[in-house]
Design a protein that fits this description.
five-stranded antiparallel sheet; mainly beta; SH3 type barrels; single chain; rod-shaped; two-stranded antiparallel sheet
């Protein structure tokens, strides 16, 4: 089965070992180049156990056994919930009173403390 180039245009793979780039899908085709292990390539189409790849303007066929396809996934968006903690409420009980703070009795001027 041959996949159209438009269907697999975004598919990226890396070579898993040194692999021969050939002019057609099979070992009986001429070797055009050798790709080193770990080279990133674009998978254009696959037929049986051979994939047509492209890399920096070079196109050819490599054995699918030497390709490790990369699946690109979008990172998950993590939304942290808002946690609201309310003081305990017991029916029939009032919350404890706030501590009483005495108000200053002297009045010098706004913003100036009494001595």
């Amino acid at each position: 089965m041959i996949l159209p180039a438009s269907a697999a245009l975004a598919e990226i793979a890396h070579t898993t070992g040194n692999v021969n780039l050939r002019t057609g899908p099979g070992t009986h085709y001429t070797r055009a180049a050798t790709l080193a292990a770990g080279v990133r390539v674009n998978v254009l189409a696959c037929q049986a156990n051979w994939c047509r790849i492209g890399r920096q303007g070079i196109r050819g066929w490599v054995s699918a056994n030497y390709l490790d396809r990369v699946v690109v996934q979008r990172p998950a968006i993590i939304v942290r919930p808002t946690i609201v903690v309310r003081p305990p409420y017991h029916h029939g009980h009032r919350p404890p009173p706030r501590p009483h703070r005495p108000r200053p009795t002297c009045k010098i001027a706004p913003g100036f403390p009494c001595r």
